[in-house]
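Regression report. Comparing outputs from two consecutive submissions.

Submission 1:
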Amino acid sequence: MISILIFLISFILGNFLGIISAYKLNKSYDIIFSILISFLGAIPILILAILALTNAEIFGYPSQFIETNRSLGFISLLVPILISSFPTIAIFFSKARKKTSEILQSNYYLFAKTYGLNKKQLLNKIILKNLFISELNLFFLVYILLFTITILIETIFSIPGQSLFISFAFKKGEIDIIMFYFSFNFVLLTLILFFNNFLIKKLNPELQKNSYLILKNKKFKFKEVQHG
């Protein structure tokens, strides 16, 4: 659950800030946010978590997860989620900034602009679509990153999740549970890769056409070898 929340916050906020930075490329906004996000993304999660724990009493937020109270439980989750989001926000921000700036300078975008599309249509039909396609390959990397981050954060802030599950399995020597856990994650990663490739080809007709031509060419060569 915490991994999904971190991913959603990172995906939305990182892309939002990255697109704005691309529109304001090399201006004060772009420079400030690029430095700030890169700096926060480069700080190790462990150091941020220790700083959050030591300053919890000063700022008045819970240092550990509270399950008995809903409002306090939400606040106790908010700080760990924000801390965990910094590296993935930096990834999406960097990708969105670079890709959007490339699109804004492309002939395809200029043609669409002269064709009469307004700013909202250009954003939805040109920028967001192409940006989403380019970021599909990042989902696998982000999943691996979040997998390690959430285990660390759940352990430090006593959040019930996969860290408790893994620690229980190792303490009790439950080999079957450990094997099931890692096998499940392996299958999930395989499905994510398959789904990513399917979406990339579905959303990018040019790539789908190229794949078809390559496959057709291979079949033609195979027939030539058989007849030869």
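Submission 2:
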Amino acid sequence: TFSNVWITVSNVNDNVPKFEKSMYTTQLWTHSNRNQLVTHIRAADADHDPLKYRLVGNNEDIISIFWINPKTGDIILTNPTKLFKYQLIILNASVNDGIHTDYCRIRIEIITRTNKRPMFTMRQYDAHVSENLPPGVIVTKVIAVTSSNMPGHLEYALVTKTFDFKINSVTGEIITLRTLDRENQAEHWLTVVALSEDKQSDWATVKIIIDDSNDNPPK
């Protein structure tokens, strides 16, 4: 005779979460906007346990400038008025899976604006575009300004190598190069740069979400 035996293998939290980098680097203007994204820190856990991010071991004044999303690891600028006191900020962060902890550092260079140096109006731009549209769709527009708060005499470029998008070097418009499929890739991250006539530059990130068009029949 035969019988079926079902064996359930339970997960044991025996893997330490690991940050993608031990040191993250970024820049902030002294005139940065409140609630703008500073950077992302990310960790992976082989056990797929829920992770919690924290800023740790920093003095109270520095802690009051930033906030970290405990679920996503996004670091947000909450008190930009204090940036003028610093030229360089080093943040310490941790990630914990309930048992194990890993650590990383975030190096933030504080930059004072000059007359000709460009600055993006946002550190991160978020955009949505529907899948299955023909190429040539304008997804979003990035804007950089100089200290006079006027755009112009700036050249935009994509730092990220991509076959899906291009950027208009004059207007900052980000345009699709081909039809996008959410099932292949639901999210795109791009890095863009603005370059002034005297070769000073600033950068920003663009997050593009591909919206579902319900093009797959149920099975």
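Expected: both submissions complete independently.
Actual: both completed, but the second showed a warning that disappeared on reload.
Relevant detail on submission 2: The chain is about 0% helix and 45% strand.
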